[in-house]
């Protein structure tokens, strides 16, 4: 606002609501079931099919069940805050838009840049996991790709902490699936949602199969000891504070497991980026956010209970824990079913994550934070942000095709937790600055829920390896250079306030 520091100028709520009626709007075609399916599609994927095995074997043991509860509670606190904002301001942009309304322009830029990191790196990580599952499926038919086309030229060795050269030149399956998903996203949100719904149905059937069939092979003695690595594992910026550490000096235990498997929950917040495409966003978006998260939390805990009950945690495969567990109990035919469902499940995660990034850019373009002519352009027939969708597709394809994406996996975690924390803070601020604003959905037990959300997000952020803090800070510094070099001079809010020339 004039007279105050323009770096912290907030975008009035009335202006956000006014923009709902402008041109270049997205098509409102999504109902609560489709939004919930998008949420489930974004959440269930590589996290449960891949990361669970490694986390149970190396970090938490059977106590990983509690790790999923802790991570799920953290997400529920944040989800309730997201739902309140999404019902108040049903426009594209998610945490970026919420930060602009409460924390100011600079924080909004940081949040938007952080979301781009979350969705782009998350998409590349998921595409990498898709490639692995796809190659395991075709291997059942005696088909294998040449080494040069099956992986990136370098990978990250998590044990030594060094980059290792491989025989690969490009991860071709990952690049191809990104290209196909990009084409689907450009075509339209209705087609994307329909495609996603089919993929969600396939993987939900697979998850229910794992739970229903695997339950007959559970041996309760495999749950003892329940917490072989302890119930803590807390660290602060990479320094162990409480609990055990592994040979590499990294914390292990239930809390450490929660920080690692948090990747399995990433995606529910993407529902809020589609508020502008919801038929009745004030009602449907909160339903989509909360329903998808609750469904996935229950399924996750059940899968981990079955997995750690079928085989001792020390024998769980770190590469494909779920499918290998069925193989160990004498059901090798189930391995193919789970791997095939994994391909479908991970495809839907990739679709929703890549669907979300362009919507954040669209919101930033409308505010002048990035070039409006490119990032703000909506296709006249498809009504999708097609240019930014293609750009993000190319960027994700490069990341997953040539770079050691496993080195960036936890960077997605810390970026997402940072966004969740900001939304929880924003709810506290908005309740004070706009107490009379219409809130079709309100965070229950206010202010306890937002405060618990802030605390739990910080707890998990601090429990991540310290290298992720360095990478996050580096990414944000690049963003600040862009902000002060371009965005500050093209800000629509500054232009309205007479701080920059038209």
Query: What fraction of residues sit in β-strands?
Result: under 5%
Distance between the termini: 17 Å
Biggest sheet overview: 2 strands, antiparallel
> Would you tell me which CATH topology applies?
Amino acid/polyamine transporter I
Tally of helical runs = 18
**Number of E-type strands:** 6
Q: Determine and state the CATH class.
A: Mainly Alpha
User: What is the fourth-level CATH superfamily?
Assistant: Amino acid/polyamine transporter I
Shape descriptor reads globular
- Can you give the mean pLDDT? 81
How would you describe this protein?
The radius of gyration is 22 Å and the shape is globular. The two termini are 17 Å apart. The protein has one domain (24-473): Amino acid/polyamine transporter I (Up-down Bundle). The longest helix is centred in the N-terminal third of the chain and has 35 residues, at 105-139. It is 63% helix and 4% strand. The chain is built from 18 helices and six strands. The mean pLDDT is 81. By secondary structure, the chain is mostly helical. The strands form three sheets. It has a two-stranded antiparallel ribbon with strand order 1-2. It has a two-stranded antiparallel sheet with strand order 3-4. A two-stranded antiparallel sheet has the order 5-6. A hairpin with a 4-residue loop joins strand 1 (154-157) and strand 2 (162-165).
